[in-house]
């Protein structure tokens, strides 16, 4: 018990030390909860669980806005429904804030206003400053789209007061950016820059990536209005680099649109169409009405400038209709001026005048001098085409005056001074961060060294205890393993004995079946023939001469039967006895000569020459009696299938560590079909050249006996040429 207690304490200490080390790990390794994890988290009791679910739905809506506004609206709406059901005011207000955001983004101004005003009322009751500030900002952005700059600034300034009081820097950054947008929309570029850079200082200081990108883009738009195109492109590129890797698809689309407009102003129409088309795909996917209106106008102008006026007018008409439907005054003015531009190019001055004048009036309503300048330029060109030169001259002077104001020295100087201040602030922040990082690294290194010393000590102690424990467990396991090995050995021996007995029984059954088959089919005919002869002798139905004539045939059958029984009995004996004990080294010449001499006369009676070509001195390692049986069978087979004038040669050679014995004849030979049937379980015996009979099992016996002697047997034959049976045996020991 004491040992286990000490071991647990050590292991706990090791775990604690590892936990201390994990504190110094990179923050990236810890990450943040994914949306999926947030949704699957346990909720608790019913009411609390419902409020948690509402908060999850609203957080999902917020996360989805940049990538999929429709999904954002769906989740927010579901959150509001559930919050109303359980009477959860904060959930209702937060959900309405999200639905209002999507509604004004989609051009649904009236529903957006209702949602946001209800959210403001609830946030005021709850005294929720952050929520109230966010609702004011959303209302301000909506009124900006509707060109109601007075109300837009009113709500944005209300939000600014709250954000300054609660010192919410992320909200302040966004607040300054949106106020800058209002001043830009009114053509007050200097004031727009004031607020943009206020937001940018905070964003850069705190390394807010996406707000920094949005502000770089907005400053680029100011530079674009001042026609400082190269610098504007630099700011747009900065924005794109910061947006890279985020899901801010809408923002990326906006930057691409701005780059396209700069390229359009620089008359790089093909490049402009490429950027604008990318942005259009995002706007369509997001349902961004504001973006669609301006993109259709920009693309319409690009197509018109590239001699495709019909397509250009189609895009511009679409922009006008869309902006009128959703009451987007700025986009409507921009599209009308675009239409007047195309009609001026076509010298259709009456239509150009109507559209330019409408655009000019809307520009006055907007108080946007940039739009007013474009309208004045087109009115001047239109009136000149209509021969109304005095009016044309007046609008031309107005255009030149506005252009001068847009490029005033104050804006340029502010831009330069702000950039210097921002660069200085950025460098100062970087130096402070580097100093802080060095101090942090030094402290972390000290803590790491201290932790390593403690851990090393704990690990050493733990290792000693673990090794001691392992040693004891190993000894106990060895005893158990030894006992198991003894039991396993007993089981294996019993199984081996049982398998051997089973194998022997199977072999005996197989042998029995084969012997019965042989005796039933191959010995019955000769015995029946002999019995028939004796029956004839008994009833004296044949003459003495007829009997004498029959005797040679009977003797031949008996000789065949006798040889077959000798072979069969020897083979049976080889199957049943311990055959390996009879293997020995013998002189090949002695064994083969005896068998060859025994069959020389039989061969001579058929007119066949049987020759012994076996050299002296060769020794083989096998059972001599088995080899005699094999030679006897192969020689009798050769005699059987040769005719008068044929030759049979028996030879032996040494090849490496074996002896190869061959019986070659010039007899009838075999075709491929016959060759494929040799050495099988059963072969149909062929009649010899003198009608000699056979069982078809001789070659099977030969194969079995040769393989038992660790040899191999094979045959080469060609019909009408002859046959060579060969077998190999291990070389004998001297």
Automatic annotation (TrEMBL):
Transmembrane stretches, start-end: 452-471
Residue ranges of TPR repeats: 133-166, 173-206, 213-246
Domain Histidine kinase stretches: 518-733
GO molecular function: histidine phosphotransfer kinase activity; phosphorelay sensor kinase activity
E.C. designation(s): 2.7.13.3
Record GO cellular component, one term: plasma membrane
Tree of life domain: Bacteria
Reactions catalysed: ATP + protein L-histidine = ADP + protein N-phospho-L-histidine
Signal peptide (from-to): none
InterPro entries hit by this protein: HATPase_C_sf, HATPase_dom, His_kinase_dom, HisK_dim/P_dom, HisK_dim/P_sf, Sig_transdc_His_kin-like_C, TPR-like_helical_dom_sf, TPR_rpt
A Pfam family this chain is assigned to: TPR_12
Keywords of this entry: Kinase, Membrane, Phosphoprotein, TPR repeat, Transferase, Transmembrane, Transmembrane helix
EC category: transferase
SUPFAM superfamilies per UniProt: ATPase domain of HSP90 chaperone/DNA topoisomerase II/histidine kinase (SSF55874), Homodimeric domain of signal transducing histidine kinase (SSF47384), TPR-like (SSF48452)
Name of the protein this chain belongs to: histidine kinase
């Amino acid at each position: 018990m004491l040992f286990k207690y000490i071991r647990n304490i050590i292991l706990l200490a090791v775990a604690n030390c590892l936990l201390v080390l994990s504190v110094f790990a990179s923050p990236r390794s810890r990450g943040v909860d994914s949306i999926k994890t947030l949704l699957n988290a346990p909720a608790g009791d019913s009411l609390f669980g419902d409020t948690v679910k509402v908060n999850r739905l609203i957080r999902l809506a917020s996360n989805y806005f940049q990538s999929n506004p429709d999904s954002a609206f769906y989740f927010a709406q579901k959150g509001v429904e559930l919050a109303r059901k359980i009477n959860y005011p904060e959930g209702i207000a937060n959900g309405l804030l999200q639905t209002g955001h999507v509604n004004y983004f989609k051009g649904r101004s009236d529903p957006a206003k209702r949602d946001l005003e209800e959210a403001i009322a609830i946030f005021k009751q709850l005294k929720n400053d952050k929520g109230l500030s966010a609702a004011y900002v959303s209302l301000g952005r909506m009124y900006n789209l509707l060109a109601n700059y007075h109300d837009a600034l009113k709500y944005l300034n209300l939000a600014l007061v709250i954000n300054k009081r609660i010192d919410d820097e992320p909200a302040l950054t966004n607040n300054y950016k949106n106020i800058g947008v209002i001043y830009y929309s009114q053509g007050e570029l200097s004031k727009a820059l004031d607020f943009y850079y206020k937001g940018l200082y905070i964003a850069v200081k705190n390394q807010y990536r996406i707000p920094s990108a949005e502000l770089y883009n907005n400053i680029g738009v100011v530079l674009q209005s001042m026609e400082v195109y190269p610098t504007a492109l630099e700011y747009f590129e900065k924005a794109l680099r910061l947006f890279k890797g985020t899901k801010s698809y809408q923002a990326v689309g906006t930057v691409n649109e701005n780059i396209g407009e700069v390229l359009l102003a620089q008359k790089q129409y093909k490049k402009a169409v490429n950027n604008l088309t990318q942005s259009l795909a995002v706007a369509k996917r997001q349902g961004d009405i504001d973006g669609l209106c301006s993109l259709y106008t920009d693309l319409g102008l690009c197509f018109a400038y590239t001699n495709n006026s019909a397509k250009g007018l189609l895009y511009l008409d679409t922009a006008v209709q869309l902006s009128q439907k959703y009451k987007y005054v700025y986009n409507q003015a921009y599209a009308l001026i675009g239409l007047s531009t195309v009609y001026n190019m076509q010298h259709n001055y009456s239509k150009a005048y109507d559209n330019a004048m409408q655009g000019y009036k809307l520009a006055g309503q907007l108080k946007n001098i940039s739009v007013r300048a474009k309208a004045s330029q087109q009115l001047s060109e239109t009136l000149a085409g209509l021969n109304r030169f005095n009016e044309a001259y007046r609008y031309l002077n107005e255009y030149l005056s506005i252009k001068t104001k847009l490029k005033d020295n104050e804006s340029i100087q502010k831009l330069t001074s702000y950039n210097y201040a921002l660069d200085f602030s950025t460098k100062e922040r970087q130096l402070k961060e580097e100093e802080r990082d060095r101090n942090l690294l030094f402290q972390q290194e000290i803590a790491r060294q201290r932790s390593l010393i403690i851990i090393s000590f704990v690990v050493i102690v733990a290792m000693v205890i673990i090794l001691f424990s392992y040693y004891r467990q190993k000894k106990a396991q060895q005893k158990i393993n030894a006992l198991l090995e003894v039991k396993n050995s007993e089981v294996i021996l019993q199984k081996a004995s049982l398998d051997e007995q089973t194998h022997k029984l199977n072999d005996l059954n197989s042998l029995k079946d084969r012997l019965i088959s042989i005796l039933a089919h191959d010995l019955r005919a000769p015995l029946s023939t002999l019995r028939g002869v004796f029956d004839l002798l008994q009833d004296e139905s044949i003459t003495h001469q007829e009997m004498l004539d029959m005797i040679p045939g009977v003797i031949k059958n008996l000789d065949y039967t006798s040889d077959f029984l000798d072979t069969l009995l020897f083979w049976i004996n080889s199957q049943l006895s311990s055959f390996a004990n009879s293997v020995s080294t013998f002189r090949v010449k002695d064994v083969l000569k005896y068998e060859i001499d025994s069959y020389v006369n039989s061969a001579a009676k058929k007119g066949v020459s049987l020759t012994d070509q076996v050299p002296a001195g060769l020794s083989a390692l096998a059972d001599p009696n088995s080899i005699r049986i094999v030679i006897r069978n192969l020689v009798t087979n050769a005699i059987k299938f040769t005719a008068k004038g044929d030759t049979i040669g028996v030879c032996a050679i040494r090849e490496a560590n074996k002896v190869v014995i061959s019986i070659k004849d010039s007899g009838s030979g075999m075709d491929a079909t016959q060759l494929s049937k040799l050495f099988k379980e059963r072969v149909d015996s062929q009649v010899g050249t003198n009608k000699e009979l056979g069982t078809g099992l001789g070659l099977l016996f030969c194969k079995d006996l040769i393989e038992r002697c660790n040899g191999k047997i094979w045959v080469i034959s060609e019909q009408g040429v002859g046959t060579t049976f060969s077998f190999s045996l291990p070389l004998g020991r001297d």
